[in-house]
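Page 37, top half.
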Amino acid sequence: MKFIYTLLIAIFSFSIIACNKETATTQADVMNTLLTNKSWYLDYSITGSNTKSYVGQPTFMVTYYKDGRTEDSDGLKGTYTVEVINNQSQIHVQVKTASGNPMEVIYNILSVGDNKLALSKVVTGTPTQLYFTSK
């Protein structure tokens, strides 16, 4: 009886450890699947206590492609990866500016669904939340 009890504890412990090792990959895969092959249009942004609405206006748009490419309405093209760092899902975007200089932007994914995306980034020490919808 003691052997069966020990065996059950070992199996339970192994299943918990195995699940934890796969969480980051699974989380990144889910985020990437929800994010890709859609055009995301900026609806509004919040920086500090300032909210800016873009609803009903021509606005910023970004597309993340399944093959890892990205492009936006400002004409920037590059690559991206979805990563999980310290349990935070992030989009790491590598682009070249109009002058040809490489630039990396890191967005924290606050939430992503079939047609809603919320990101956060820090520019000059102030966090900005960006809220998008896909159309």
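Page 37, bottom half:
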Amino acid sequence: MLEEIASSRFGFWIVAMIMAAVDSSFLLKPGKFAFSISRANQVRLRISSSPFTLRNRELASSFLSFPFQLFFISDIDALERTAQETFNALSRMRRLSRQTTIFSTLSAVAVILLVLGPCAAAVLGIQLSIMILFPPLYGFAIATSVLLWRRRRRFGFSNSTVLKMSAEIIFCPVLLVNISKRISLAQKSELNTFRLASLSSSPDQTMAAIRENIRYHNGD
């Protein structure tokens, strides 16, 4: 089946989309939860009461849960900070999220190019579609790499971290779609999940979902 897809008229673009979809996935250890922050510092925790796991780690997709958006990882075992310390940390994360707007835009453009790929292939043929759409995608990947290098200190990234991200998206520009995921996972976990639950729109329901997730991992 895969051989048929690869050799079809749309094979190149279908494979590219599959690569982007697979690359958007990431694994969470038991007790760790991904979350995003609204402009009002309200927390949205991603919690599944019956998660799909691989080797006791929860499989998640950044493209489905946090499309073109920076997210962070919390831990139920993290030191519980005071309300003011938590608020300050969330404010800092929200500012960091605003600084990634350009990366989200580049990622969205990359998705548009991938979607246009099969359309162009249907009208112009596979070779011409690649010649027209792939160079801009490669150019955006290079531009993203330059921006990552220039802003590495704002994100607290080491030179090796930025070089690794840059190498990935330059050698495979399709992965530009998930640049927000790469930036997100490079951030350090520092906030307690239970403290964050109290700052969500439905604290009681969120807390119950967290406990249900923990029981699932513990096999209770």
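Margin note: The longest strand covers residues 32-37.
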